[in-house]
Design a protein that fits this description.
single chain, globular, Phosphorylase Kinase, domain 1, Aminoglycoside 3'-phosphotransferase, Chain: A, domain 2, about 350 residues, alpha+beta
Protein backbone atom coordinates (compact mmCIF):
# COMPACT_ATOMS: atom_id res chain seq x y z
CA UNK A 1 0.00 0.00 0.00
CA UNK A 2 1.54 3.35 -1.01
CA UNK A 3 2.11 5.77 1.89
CA UNK A 4 -0.26 8.29 0.29
CA UNK A 5 -3.14 5.83 0.72
CA UNK A 6 -2.57 5.37 4.44
CA UNK A 7 -4.71 7.01 7.07
CA UNK A 8 -3.39 7.25 10.60
CA UNK A 9 -4.47 8.66 13.91
CA UNK A 10 -4.61 12.47 13.69
CA UNK A 11 -1.55 14.20 15.12
CA UNK A 12 -3.54 15.82 17.94
CA UNK A 13 -4.78 12.38 19.07
CA UNK A 14 -1.34 10.75 19.25
CA UNK A 15 0.80 10.85 22.38
CA UNK A 16 3.85 13.15 22.39
CA UNK A 17 6.78 11.51 20.62
CA UNK A 18 4.71 10.02 17.80
CA UNK A 19 4.06 11.41 14.30
CA UNK A 20 1.24 9.01 13.35
CA UNK A 21 1.10 9.68 9.62
CA UNK A 22 4.84 9.26 9.05
CA UNK A 23 5.18 6.29 11.42
CA UNK A 24 2.23 4.57 9.72
CA UNK A 25 3.83 5.03 6.33
CA UNK A 26 7.17 3.74 7.62
CA UNK A 27 5.63 0.71 9.28
CA UNK A 28 3.68 -0.15 6.13
CA UNK A 29 6.99 -0.37 4.26
CA UNK A 30 8.62 -2.63 6.85
CA UNK A 31 5.94 -4.84 8.42
CA UNK A 32 4.15 -7.67 6.63
CA UNK A 33 0.60 -6.48 7.30
CA UNK A 34 -0.58 -3.06 8.33
CA UNK A 35 -4.24 -2.04 8.36
CA UNK A 36 -4.66 1.68 9.14
CA UNK A 37 -5.53 3.59 11.16
CA UNK A 38 -2.96 2.93 13.87
CA UNK A 39 -3.43 3.61 17.56
CA UNK A 40 -0.52 4.55 19.83
CA UNK A 41 -0.33 4.16 23.60
CA UNK A 42 2.61 5.04 25.84
CA UNK A 43 3.67 1.98 27.87
CA UNK A 44 6.66 3.43 29.69
CA UNK A 45 8.21 6.86 29.68
CA UNK A 46 10.17 9.37 31.74
CA UNK A 47 13.89 10.02 31.51
CA UNK A 48 14.55 6.62 29.94
CA UNK A 49 13.70 5.60 26.40
CA UNK A 50 10.00 5.82 25.54
CA UNK A 51 8.06 2.66 24.72
CA UNK A 52 4.77 2.73 22.78
CA UNK A 53 2.26 0.01 21.98
CA UNK A 54 1.10 0.27 18.35
CA UNK A 55 -2.08 -1.42 17.13
CA UNK A 56 -3.73 -1.31 13.71
CA UNK A 57 -7.41 -1.67 12.75
CA UNK A 58 -7.01 -5.43 12.25
CA UNK A 59 -5.61 -5.99 15.74
CA UNK A 60 -1.96 -6.43 14.72
CA UNK A 61 0.34 -5.09 17.43
CA UNK A 62 3.91 -3.85 17.61
CA UNK A 63 6.15 -2.01 20.09
CA UNK A 64 8.00 1.19 19.16
CA UNK A 65 11.03 2.45 21.12
CA UNK A 66 12.44 5.96 20.81
CA UNK A 67 14.60 8.35 22.90
CA UNK A 68 13.07 10.67 25.50
CA UNK A 69 11.64 13.92 24.15
CA UNK A 70 14.20 16.65 23.75
CA UNK A 71 17.20 14.30 24.03
CA UNK A 72 17.58 13.11 20.46
CA UNK A 73 21.29 13.74 20.03
CA UNK A 74 22.27 12.24 23.38
CA UNK A 75 20.37 9.01 22.82
CA UNK A 76 20.33 8.52 19.06
CA UNK A 77 23.19 6.06 19.34
CA UNK A 78 21.32 4.16 22.05
CA UNK A 79 18.48 3.31 19.67
CA UNK A 80 20.87 1.83 17.16
CA UNK A 81 22.68 0.02 19.95
CA UNK A 82 19.50 -1.54 21.36
CA UNK A 83 18.35 -2.56 17.89
CA UNK A 84 21.73 -4.07 17.13
CA UNK A 85 21.81 -6.08 20.38
CA UNK A 86 18.30 -7.49 20.06
CA UNK A 87 18.82 -8.34 16.39
CA UNK A 88 22.11 -10.12 17.19
CA UNK A 89 20.49 -12.13 19.98
CA UNK A 90 17.51 -13.22 17.85
CA UNK A 91 19.06 -16.52 16.64
CA UNK A 92 20.35 -17.47 20.11
CA UNK A 93 18.59 -19.16 23.04
CA UNK A 94 17.90 -15.76 24.60
CA UNK A 95 14.22 -14.83 24.18
CA UNK A 96 13.93 -11.36 22.66
CA UNK A 97 11.11 -9.71 20.72
CA UNK A 98 11.41 -10.15 16.92
CA UNK A 99 12.65 -6.92 15.36
CA UNK A 100 10.73 -5.30 12.49
CA UNK A 101 13.23 -2.58 11.66
CA UNK A 102 15.18 0.51 12.63
CA UNK A 103 14.59 4.06 11.38
CA UNK A 104 17.47 6.53 11.55
CA UNK A 105 15.73 9.20 9.45
CA UNK A 106 14.76 11.80 12.05
CA UNK A 107 12.35 13.48 9.63
CA UNK A 108 9.99 10.53 10.13
CA UNK A 109 9.41 10.86 13.87
CA UNK A 110 11.77 13.51 15.20
CA UNK A 111 14.30 10.98 16.47
CA UNK A 112 15.64 7.52 15.61
CA UNK A 113 13.33 4.65 16.60
CA UNK A 114 12.94 0.94 16.12
CA UNK A 115 9.94 -1.37 16.06
CA UNK A 116 9.54 -4.89 17.44
CA UNK A 117 6.77 -7.44 17.22
CA UNK A 118 4.43 -7.34 20.21
CA UNK A 119 4.98 -10.28 22.57
CA UNK A 120 1.96 -11.47 24.55
CA UNK A 121 2.56 -12.05 28.22
CA UNK A 122 2.57 -10.39 31.62
CA UNK A 123 5.10 -8.28 33.46
CA UNK A 124 5.18 -8.84 37.21
CA UNK A 125 5.95 -5.51 38.85
CA UNK A 126 4.17 -5.79 42.19
CA UNK A 127 2.33 -8.19 44.46
CA UNK A 128 -0.95 -7.64 42.62
CA UNK A 129 0.68 -8.83 39.38
CA UNK A 130 2.17 -11.83 41.21
CA UNK A 131 -1.29 -12.88 42.40
CA UNK A 132 -2.25 -13.54 38.78
CA UNK A 133 0.22 -16.44 38.82
CA UNK A 134 -0.24 -19.68 40.71
CA UNK A 135 2.51 -20.73 43.13
CA UNK A 136 3.60 -23.30 40.53
CA UNK A 137 3.83 -20.61 37.84
CA UNK A 138 5.87 -18.42 40.21
CA UNK A 139 8.29 -21.28 40.79
CA UNK A 140 8.61 -21.76 37.06
CA UNK A 141 9.10 -18.02 36.57
CA UNK A 142 12.03 -18.04 38.99
CA UNK A 143 13.54 -21.10 37.32
CA UNK A 144 13.15 -19.55 33.89
CA UNK A 145 14.47 -16.16 35.04
CA UNK A 146 17.76 -17.63 36.22
CA UNK A 147 17.96 -20.00 33.25
CA UNK A 148 17.61 -17.14 30.78
CA UNK A 149 20.27 -15.15 32.63
CA UNK A 150 22.58 -18.13 32.25
CA UNK A 151 21.71 -18.25 28.54
CA UNK A 152 22.56 -14.56 28.12
CA UNK A 153 25.93 -15.10 29.74
CA UNK A 154 26.60 -18.20 27.63
CA UNK A 155 26.41 -16.28 24.35
CA UNK A 156 29.80 -15.60 22.77
CA UNK A 157 29.75 -11.91 21.75
CA UNK A 158 32.20 -12.54 18.91
CA UNK A 159 30.04 -15.25 17.35
CA UNK A 160 26.96 -13.03 17.09
CA UNK A 161 28.85 -9.92 15.95
CA UNK A 162 28.90 -8.02 19.24
CA UNK A 163 32.58 -8.42 20.00
CA UNK A 164 33.15 -4.68 19.49
CA UNK A 165 30.20 -3.59 21.62
CA UNK A 166 32.53 -2.51 24.45
CA UNK A 167 35.96 -3.11 25.95
CA UNK A 168 36.56 -6.65 27.17
CA UNK A 169 38.67 -5.79 30.21
CA UNK A 170 38.38 -3.79 33.41
CA UNK A 171 34.59 -3.70 33.55
CA UNK A 172 34.25 -3.47 37.34
CA UNK A 173 37.09 -0.95 37.62
CA UNK A 174 35.43 1.28 35.02
CA UNK A 175 32.04 0.96 36.69
CA UNK A 176 33.44 1.89 40.10
CA UNK A 177 35.19 4.92 38.63
CA UNK A 178 32.14 6.03 36.65
CA UNK A 179 29.62 5.81 39.49
CA UNK A 180 31.96 7.29 42.10
CA UNK A 181 32.55 10.26 39.82
CA UNK A 182 28.79 10.69 39.44
CA UNK A 183 28.30 10.38 43.20
CA UNK A 184 30.93 13.04 43.85
CA UNK A 185 29.24 15.36 41.37
CA UNK A 186 25.89 15.03 43.14
CA UNK A 187 27.14 14.85 46.74
CA UNK A 188 25.18 17.26 48.95
CA UNK A 189 26.02 15.86 52.42
CA UNK A 190 28.61 13.87 54.29
CA UNK A 191 28.20 10.12 53.67
CA UNK A 192 31.50 8.56 54.71
CA UNK A 193 30.11 5.04 54.37
CA UNK A 194 29.86 5.55 50.59
CA UNK A 195 33.54 6.44 50.34
CA UNK A 196 34.43 3.59 52.67
CA UNK A 197 32.55 1.04 50.57
CA UNK A 198 34.02 2.42 47.35
CA UNK A 199 37.53 2.09 48.73
CA UNK A 200 36.85 -1.47 49.90
CA UNK A 201 35.33 -2.48 46.57
CA UNK A 202 38.30 -1.08 44.66
CA UNK A 203 40.68 -3.15 46.79
CA UNK A 204 38.67 -6.38 46.56
CA UNK A 205 37.80 -6.68 42.86
CA UNK A 206 37.67 -10.38 42.03
CA UNK A 207 39.57 -11.75 39.08
CA UNK A 208 37.37 -11.31 36.04
CA UNK A 209 37.14 -13.95 33.35
CA UNK A 210 36.32 -13.52 29.66
CA UNK A 211 33.87 -10.71 28.94
CA UNK A 212 30.26 -11.79 28.48
CA UNK A 213 27.11 -9.98 27.48
CA UNK A 214 25.86 -8.07 30.52
CA UNK A 215 22.22 -6.96 30.40
CA UNK A 216 22.86 -4.22 32.96
CA UNK A 217 19.41 -4.14 34.58
CA UNK A 218 18.25 -7.76 34.69
CA UNK A 219 15.27 -8.24 37.01
CA UNK A 220 11.84 -9.82 37.13
CA UNK A 221 9.95 -6.76 35.88
CA UNK A 222 12.25 -6.38 32.88
CA UNK A 223 11.07 -9.75 31.57
CA UNK A 224 7.81 -10.81 29.91
CA UNK A 225 6.30 -14.04 31.23
CA UNK A 226 4.19 -16.50 29.26
CA UNK A 227 1.16 -18.42 30.55
CA UNK A 228 3.26 -21.17 32.14
CA UNK A 229 5.59 -18.70 33.86
CA UNK A 230 8.46 -19.03 31.40
CA UNK A 231 10.30 -15.89 30.30
CA UNK A 232 9.18 -15.27 26.72
CA UNK A 233 11.04 -11.98 26.18
CA UNK A 234 13.80 -10.05 27.93
CA UNK A 235 13.19 -6.31 27.67
CA UNK A 236 15.05 -3.01 28.21
CA UNK A 237 18.51 -3.62 26.76
CA UNK A 238 19.58 0.04 26.88
CA UNK A 239 22.28 -0.61 29.52
CA UNK A 240 23.64 -3.74 27.86
CA UNK A 241 27.41 -3.97 27.44
CA UNK A 242 30.27 -6.44 27.68
CA UNK A 243 31.76 -7.22 31.06
CA UNK A 244 31.65 -9.39 34.15
CA UNK A 245 28.45 -11.48 34.08
CA UNK A 246 28.34 -11.79 37.86
CA UNK A 247 27.45 -8.09 38.00
CA UNK A 248 24.06 -9.08 36.52
CA UNK A 249 23.61 -11.83 39.08
CA UNK A 250 24.58 -9.57 41.98
CA UNK A 251 22.13 -6.87 40.91
CA UNK A 252 19.34 -9.44 40.46
CA UNK A 253 19.91 -10.56 44.06
CA UNK A 254 19.82 -6.93 45.22
CA UNK A 255 16.47 -6.44 43.49
CA UNK A 256 15.05 -9.74 44.77
CA UNK A 257 12.80 -9.91 47.83
CA UNK A 258 12.67 -12.99 50.03
CA UNK A 259 9.40 -13.92 51.80
CA UNK A 260 8.67 -11.69 54.77
CA UNK A 261 10.96 -8.84 53.70
CA UNK A 262 9.69 -5.29 53.32
CA UNK A 263 10.94 -1.73 53.29
CA UNK A 264 13.12 0.44 51.02
CA UNK A 265 15.53 -2.36 50.12
CA UNK A 266 12.74 -4.60 48.80
CA UNK A 267 13.03 -3.40 45.22
CA UNK A 268 10.99 -6.25 43.70
CA UNK A 269 8.31 -6.99 46.33
CA UNK A 270 6.47 -9.38 44.00
CA UNK A 271 9.24 -11.95 44.34
CA UNK A 272 8.35 -12.44 48.00
CA UNK A 273 5.07 -14.16 47.04
CA UNK A 274 4.68 -17.86 47.82
CA UNK A 275 6.24 -20.04 45.13
CA UNK A 276 9.05 -17.76 43.99
CA UNK A 277 12.54 -19.10 44.78
CA UNK A 278 14.66 -17.36 47.39
CA UNK A 279 17.91 -15.51 46.74
CA UNK A 280 19.79 -18.59 47.91
CA UNK A 281 17.84 -20.71 45.42
CA UNK A 282 18.65 -18.34 42.55
CA UNK A 283 22.33 -18.31 43.42
CA UNK A 284 22.50 -22.10 43.67
CA UNK A 285 20.71 -22.65 40.38
CA UNK A 286 22.84 -20.10 38.51
CA UNK A 287 26.00 -21.74 39.84
CA UNK A 288 24.79 -25.20 38.83
CA UNK A 289 23.67 -24.02 35.40
CA UNK A 290 26.80 -22.07 34.48
CA UNK A 291 29.57 -23.77 36.44
CA UNK A 292 30.91 -20.31 37.33
CA UNK A 293 32.63 -19.65 40.62
CA UNK A 294 30.14 -17.53 42.58
CA UNK A 295 31.98 -17.65 45.91
CA UNK A 296 32.61 -13.89 45.71
CA UNK A 297 28.95 -13.05 45.02
CA UNK A 298 28.85 -10.76 48.06
CA UNK A 299 31.24 -8.45 46.20
CA UNK A 300 28.78 -8.13 43.33
CA UNK A 301 25.85 -7.72 45.70
CA UNK A 302 27.75 -4.99 47.54
CA UNK A 303 28.57 -3.31 44.23
CA UNK A 304 24.88 -3.49 43.22
CA UNK A 305 23.73 -1.83 46.46
CA UNK A 306 26.45 0.81 46.21
CA UNK A 307 25.66 1.62 42.57
CA UNK A 308 21.96 2.04 43.34
CA UNK A 309 22.90 4.33 46.23
CA UNK A 310 24.96 6.47 43.83
CA UNK A 311 22.03 6.73 41.43
CA UNK A 312 19.49 7.61 44.12
CA UNK A 313 21.80 10.15 45.77
CA UNK A 314 21.82 12.01 42.47
CA UNK A 315 18.01 12.02 42.43
CA UNK A 316 17.85 13.08 46.09
CA UNK A 317 20.33 15.91 45.59
CA UNK A 318 18.40 17.35 42.64
CA UNK A 319 15.09 17.39 44.43
CA UNK A 320 16.48 18.40 47.84
CA UNK A 321 17.99 21.37 46.04
CA UNK A 322 14.54 22.45 44.87
CA UNK A 323 14.68 21.22 41.31
CA UNK A 324 10.96 20.47 41.51
CA UNK A 325 9.97 23.12 44.05
CA UNK A 326 8.67 22.35 47.52
CA UNK A 327 6.32 19.59 46.37
CA UNK A 328 9.14 17.74 44.62
CA UNK A 329 11.43 18.06 47.62
CA UNK A 330 8.82 16.56 49.93
CA UNK A 331 7.93 13.79 47.50
CA UNK A 332 11.53 12.64 47.20
CA UNK A 333 12.66 13.32 50.77
CA UNK A 334 12.64 9.58 51.52
CA UNK A 335 15.33 8.99 48.92
CA UNK A 336 17.95 10.32 51.31
CA UNK A 337 17.12 7.65 53.90
CA UNK A 338 17.05 4.98 51.19
CA UNK A 339 20.56 5.95 50.05
CA UNK A 340 21.84 5.47 53.60
CA UNK A 341 20.12 2.06 53.87
CA UNK A 342 21.59 0.97 50.53
CA UNK A 343 25.04 2.14 51.58
CA UNK A 344 24.80 0.20 54.83
CA UNK A 345 23.62 -2.89 52.95
CA UNK A 346 26.66 -2.55 50.68
CA UNK A 347 28.94 -2.26 53.71
CA UNK A 348 27.39 -5.36 55.27
CA UNK A 349 27.88 -7.32 52.05
CA UNK A 350 31.51 -6.24 51.79
CA UNK A 351 32.09 -7.33 55.38
CA UNK A 352 31.04 -10.87 54.44
CA UNK A 353 33.89 -11.21 51.96
Amino acid sequence: MPPSDLHATPNDAAPPGINPAEVTAWLARHADEVTPPLGFDLITGGHSNLTFRVEDAAGHRWVLRRPPLGQVLATAHDMGREHRIISALAPTDVPVPPVVGMCTDESVNGAPFYVMEFVDGIIVRDTADAEVLTPEQRTQAGESLIGVLADIHAVDPEVIGLGDLARHDGYIERQLKRWHRQFEASRSRDLPVMDEVHSRLCSLIPKQGPAAIVHGDYRLDNCMLGPDGDVVAVLDWELCTLGDPLADLGLLLVYWTDPGESGPLSVTPASGAVGFPTRADLLERYTERTGRDTSAIDFYVAFGYWKLACILEGVFSRYAGGAMGNRGSQEFSGFGDTVELLAQAAKDAVARL
